[in-house]
Design brief:
115 residues; alpha+beta; 5-stranded antiparallel β-sheet; 3 helices; 5 strands; binds adenosine monophosphate; binds zinc ion
Length: 115
């Protein structure tokens, strides 16, 4: 499995950096965001390193794993009134950590457009 030893989220996947894990399987890890933007803010990452979703194209095991984990965690977190899934990509997309990740946000009303 490809990883980047310098990557923050690879280090979280490998438990070299602590995080509050809420879900894990063979493909993904889901953990609490360190700077939450909503009452529930979970980051879901593939265990393999991809810089962004463009690099992960066609890796359907990982892409499905991210989405299915998000729905499972949303149910576990009782987000019955709704939630938002976000994948920031690249500079204009606001991506700050270059390891593909899916944000799960919930517990408050979301705004649109997101800004
Ligand atoms: P993005 O801006 O889409 O690249 O998202 C990166 C997210 O990772 C931000 O919401 C950060 O708050 C979050 N983050 C950065 N470092 C950590 C960490 N050590 N543990 C948990 N979340 C982190
Ligand atoms: Zn990584």
């Amino acid at each position: 499995m490809h990883q980047d030893p310098e990557c923050l989220f690879c280090k979280i996947v490998n438990k070299e950096i602590p995080s509050e894990v809420v879900f894990e399987d063979d493909k993904v890890v889901a953990f609490k965001d360190i700077d939450p933007q909503a009452p529930v803010h979970i980051v879901i990452v593939p265990k393999e390193h991809f810089n962004n979703i463009i690099e992960a194209q066609d890796n359907n095991d990982y892409l499905n794993g991210l989405l299915n984990a998000a729905v499972k965690v949303a149910k576990d977190q009782n987000l019955d009134d709704g939630f938002r899934l976000v994948i920031n990509t690249g500079k204009e997309g606001g991506q700050t950590v270059e390891h593909l990740h899916l944000h799960l946000l919930g517990g408050r009303n979301m705004q649109w457009p997101p800004g």
